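For the sake of transparency, this paper describes our internal protein records without simplification. An entry from our holdings is shown next, in its original layout:
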Amino acid sequence: MKSFIIYYYFEKHQPLKFKVLDHDGGNTYNNIGSVETTLAKILQSYNSTIESDLVLFGTDKPRGRLVVRADTVMESNWSIKLKIGALQLPTYRVCLFCSQTSPFFEIWRCSN
């Protein structure tokens, strides 16, 4: 998953090309495929989400699916500090001589 900010200009054609590469280490990459669309098409679709087949240039055979979703983000300089704690977490046996807890918290951004 990758996020980035693109400014939307109403009634201006903004083409986008998404290329998916497999990084094999060093300077070696394999081209999985690409998708071409416009920012307006993404924003006008249901839930501002599109799904498209990844295809190599010159072929019609799909090599995977790409899901692109747009969110409206308001610029702000707000910051938030959280202090999260937990009590009475269960202990799980990992081996005979040790025990470990593996709690996690999910923090979501609400979109209205």
Notes: Helices lie at 39-44.
